[in-house]
What does this fold into?
Amino acid sequence: THDNPIQLALLINAVQTKLHVEGEIDALVSPERAELQILLEGKDLSRWNEVIDTAFPAFPTYQLAGRLLLANEEWAVNDLKAIVKESDVTGTLKFIPEANPVRIEGQLSSTRLDMAQLQEYVPQQPNPEPWTVKIGNILNSIGQAAWQTSLTYRADLIETGIVPVHNADIALRLEDQRLIIKPLSAEMAGIQLNIETQISVEENLAKGQVHLRAENKDASNMIKIANAFTSGSNAMQDLPGNLEMNLAMNIHMVPPPDQKKGSPVGTSPHTPIHVVEWSTLDIEIFDIRYTDPSTNTQILAHMDENISDGMVIKAKGVLRNEPLTLTVSGPTVDTLLEPSPDHAPQTPLSADLQLLNTTAALSAMIEPAWPPMWMDLSVSLHSDAPSTVASLFDMKIPALEPIAVKGKLSKRSRTWTLDNLSGVMGHSDFAAAATIDPGDRTRFSATVHSGTFNVVSLVPLSGIGESPARQPGTQKRGGLHIPDWLTHLEGILEISVGNLVFPNVTLEDVSMVTGIENCLLRISPLTVEIGEGTITTSALLDLRDPSLPSRLETDIQRVDLDKAMQALGNESDSLGTVSGRLALSLSSAERNVNYPFEMEALVNRLRLDEMRIRYDDPDLQAKSDLQVRAESSGIQVNGTIEYRGNPVDIRLATGSIQKAWR
It folds into this structure.
């Protein structure tokens, strides 16, 4: 009774879980008043799978506490606190069963919610439901909800595993077959997001509206990410401006395919009541607007809704006082999401861009599915002044006027093929082809040819010779970090250049074959023709070891030094011809070496395996044939020097190679 409540105390310990309930209740059956303190805590929640035939998440530690109140036919949980590993939720919940309809209210908050970590604890379904079923279940729960909900949630930090979300604020209402989320605001990478969403379900028709506004508060975080792929003068500047998007669409729900054939509804608790029919997707409004008054930029993109056999997105506006137009056409969204046998086996896709004196075009035929298993793309790019276009984005690139590139890219199953890629960049030309098969081990084969490759014209306008200052603590102890993707890469790259132009020197007929397999990088060989002779270099680099042990071998075949010096821009008297061989190796660093790439550590690891030099100058009647060996005892030089028919034997010994280098 109210005057004489029951004092309740309950303690349960089972399967590394403790449940403690303590408080007062006026009746054990149909109570009218209650005040109970509840504490549930434990470890390894998934162990309950052995007791109950279900799939509990594998929470390593968890705690749930709160004060349960019953008064005036309302249940409330005050001082709610839930903790799983490093995530927490606090707040209050209220359940009003006597309301019509039943009503649920709540105010929740978190200081930290690690969604990426929590997702790892959730058991994976062996046969995950398709999106048509997942979305159908959500829409069906909205349309047939027998309750009303009003919840608010605020989080200081939400970890997503990609970009952290700060100061999230969400208000959710479910009533009259409508789900309203207003507002949904958060800050991501310096961008303030505000989203308003409304979904209504009436019978089998679902309608959705989304309004998004993104306001740049501080783009420094995004810029840091972008600058990881650039350096020096090409570092991106701040990107101020606001982005707005409006979306309105309708879609129908239908019974699952088995129910269409006459199966009774609800034959299984896992059988969905409705699924969405992608073919009924109708996008009424889709427009995006970007504005930045500080740079006189305003771009509006919208989808043409009058196209029945495909979609067309058109963007037009001004980018920093320069006119911009972009047109993209392709298949309908429902064709990509759920291809039908009635659709064509191939679907066209195209895009055209015009900005200043730059035009870019893409045309493709793709499989009507996402992701497509096959496609054929043709791309082209032409720009008379690409450096001017780059300046619109606060970037500096070499004056590569003009640029003209075209090529074809195709995909069959998982294999990508780049074919007939060719182009001109300023004073350089190139042609390339490649095949990439991304599997358990990514395999590739590529060839690149250039008639003339002018290195001088490709050097950036500024920052030549500059190197970023080393920040304190940035030196890699114990060697370089080898990325995981490189350990799963196998393939071969062939490069040939007719004329390789450097400052004051042009090398002719340069070729190189580079291969990688089992983390062994091979260059075999790099060939340069100079002075009517040939210099051939091969190398082996072991990427399995962070200290990068390697071997380098160079062969010189009858190089005329006079003509070689002329090619290098220097005139000289008669110097004769030279031939020879050089073999160097870099041994693996010992584990206790902190900096294996410092000069002293490199010298200690360097080995001179072989060096032989043969020189012949008929004008001076001089010849030489010298061989150098480096052994543990020291360096030995043996050979002969001949001048005007008089040979001289040479025998020379020094200390170790380390002492010689010093």
In short: The two ends are 97 Å apart (CA to CA). Residues 1-95 form one domain. Residues 219-238, 260-269, 461-477 have pLDDT under 50 and may be disordered.
